[in-house]
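Aim 2, interim progress. The first record below pairs a target sequence with its structure tokens.
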Amino acid sequence: MFGERLKLLRNEKMLKQSDIAEALGLTRHSISNYELNEREPDYKTLEQLSNYFDVTVDYLLGRSNIRNPYLISSLQSDSKEHSKNEIENILSETQKMLQDGTDLTLEGEPAAPEAIQSIIDGIDLSLEMAKRRNKKKQE
């Protein structure tokens, strides 16, 4: 699971293995071995990767589908302090969690892909409505 997550994160940011290796002081070969699940990183490397991609170690290891719960909790703690971009980032993370999630349920039943897509579409629609209302209020 770790290798798949690492590769997914790297591809999302359109990075090469050598980009990550250089940023973290590793070799490209090490990154390749991690992605192929041929080697496991030590704790320090896990922590560096977690910080680099702004995800939790649990997400990297596949123990959680939540990339960064701190983004969500920070919005809940003081929503008036967050800018439009931060709200969009949080909603984007939520959409990624829904898309990446396996074994998601809805009302106790396995969630159909169509149901998950409906939720994602609803988030997009709600965000657009909020942007329009916000724009009108500022005019």
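The second target in this work package is listed in the same format:
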Amino acid sequence: MWIAIISIVFFAAIFLSVGIIISASDKKRKKICTEQVSATVIENKKVSSRSNGHRSVSYTPVFRYEYKMKEYIAQTAFSSNPPAFSEGETMEIFIDPSSPQKIYVPQMKTNLILEVIFTLIGGIALAAAVVVFIVMHK
């Protein structure tokens, strides 16, 4: 039974860690991307992946914007299906003034969704480990 508890705690730790890493990464990007610019979605780049013989397709937005009289094209690290934005859509995004190709798109909720999912699964697994431990010691 101890092996089961340790396995559940290990599983919980992995999921909680991923949730925390996603959250920290998003907060860091938000902190360094302080310059607001107007950007246009010029493409929804198709991203294909395979898992267990199944193929899935998602789309990552590609943005074009100007900063200090220079044009930049950048994309986010996350994708979705359906596409999060329409091609030609214009919105305000934030860039890192010292590295303008780094962007933060507040309208993209993918990070928040992943953060919540991983943290929730990790929390539930940790709670399950505590319940199993308490039941074992009664």
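The chain has one domain: 2-136. This observation will shape the mutagenesis plan for the next reporting period.
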